[in-house]
């Protein structure tokens, strides 16, 4: 066994202490660096609540939002869609989950303009920035819940868009033509607005409105509905569909009935309808630039988070799409 003198032992003790202190400093520095890195990596979280991802319009919207999030890189995006256009409970559950998670922003395209207002109020009360886009929340329901009547909305003028494509149908068919309207979900304000726009065209061109029925935005429901309406109104000349998913269903019904003498117009400019326009099976649609719509709403939301006071309507563009520019 080897023994050390007191001086040597003292030096060894000092060396051990110095190494311990150095090790502690390095550990603390590492902790600070890790904490700093963690803080740098922490990004605001945005919850995106959409309607049915079975609808091509919302699928492309999600893809556009995810692309924007990747390219921007400054926030984390969590996107949620519904199983069908009438699956309101899924949207309510998504809102509740985002509120529980305390996300920084919720961007909402409500399937029901009244039914989602309580969830929006709860999110706002929790200090979360909420941006309503695509479909307006009902103004009376907003006021009754304690939210402002001019609660921020980011989206297109649905009535003007429907009138634009309705007028194109009127010009094509001529005054007095017999038409049918296929409406969207009655609980959604954009469905009401699009019907309003179609009715303006009916009045402008003195169209003979044979029927106006809902297919709840759904392709197969529109297929069945139009099949039945063709039997009831075989002299129909034009069909106004409040979205392109229903226009696809209407086109299927006309194909099955061997009717190539009826013009269809839609709204959304999804890929499936672009092909139908090229084939001459759909006359026209409205492009409301779905891939950019959610991204635009997120951008507006960050303006609010950064201190800008915004309310009312931030309009997004619409464009008539026909065989000339599809």
Q: What layout of secondary structure does this protein have?
A:
Elements: H1 6-41, E1 45-52, H2 56-72, E2 76-82, H3 88-101, E3 105-108, H4 117-125, E4 129-133, H5 139-145, E5 153-155, H6 158-173, E6 178-183, H7 189-204, E7 208-214, H8 219-232, E8 238-241, H9 244-257, E9 263-265, H10 271-278, E10 285-287, H11 290-305, E11 313-315, E12 319-321
Describe what this molecule looks like in 3D:
This protein is α/β, with parallel strands linked by helices. The protein is built from eleven helices and twelve strands. It has helices at residues 6-41, 56-72, 88-101, 117-125, 139-145, 158-173, 189-204, 219-232, 244-257, 271-278, 290-305, and strands at residues 45-52, 76-82, 105-108, 129-133, 153-155, 178-183, 208-214, 238-241, 263-265, 285-287, 313-315, 319-321. The relative contact order is 0.12. The model is unreliable at 1-40 (pLDDT under 50).
């Amino acid at each position: 066994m080897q023994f050390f003198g007191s001086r040597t032992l003292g030096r060894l003790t000092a060396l051990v202490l110095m190494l311990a202190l150095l090790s502690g400093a390095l550990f603390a520095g590492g902790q600070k660096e890790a904490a700093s890195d963690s803080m740098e990596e922490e990004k605001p979280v945005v919850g995106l609540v959409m309607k049915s991802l079975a609808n091509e319009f919302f699928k492309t919207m999600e893809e556009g939002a995810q692309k924007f999030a990747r390219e921007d890189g400054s926030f984390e995006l969590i996107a949620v869609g519904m199983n069908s256009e009438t699956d309101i409970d899924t949207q309510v559950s998504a809102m509740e989950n985002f509120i529980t998670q305390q996300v920084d922003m919720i961007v909402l395209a409500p399937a029901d303009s009244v039914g989602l207002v309580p969830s929006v109020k709860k999110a706002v009360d929790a200090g979360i920035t909420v941006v309503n886009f695509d479909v307006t929340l009902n103004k009376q329901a907003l006021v009754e819940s304690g939210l402002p009547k001019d609660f921020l909305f980011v989206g297109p003028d649905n009535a003007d868009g429907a009138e634009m494509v309705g007028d194109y149908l009127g010009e094509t068919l001529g005054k007095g033509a017999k038409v049918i309207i296929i409406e969207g979900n009655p609980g959604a304000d954009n469905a009401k607005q699009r019907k309003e726009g179609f009715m303006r065209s009916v009045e402008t061109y003195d169209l003979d409105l044979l029927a106006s029925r809902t297919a709840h935005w759904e392709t197969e429901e529109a297929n069945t509905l139009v099949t039945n309406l063709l039997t009831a109104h075989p002299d129909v000349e034009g069909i106004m569909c409040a979205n392109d998913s229903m226009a696809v269903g209407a086109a299927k019904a006309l194909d099955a009935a061997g009717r190539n003498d009826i013009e269809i117009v839609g709204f959304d400019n999804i890929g499936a309808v672009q092909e139908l326009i090229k084939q001459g099976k759909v006359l026209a649609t409205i492009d409301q630039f779905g891939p950019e719509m959610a991204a635009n709403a997120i951008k507006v939301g960050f303006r609010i988070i950064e201190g800008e006071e915004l309310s009312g309507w931030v309009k997004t563009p619409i464009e008539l799409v026909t065989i000339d520019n599809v």
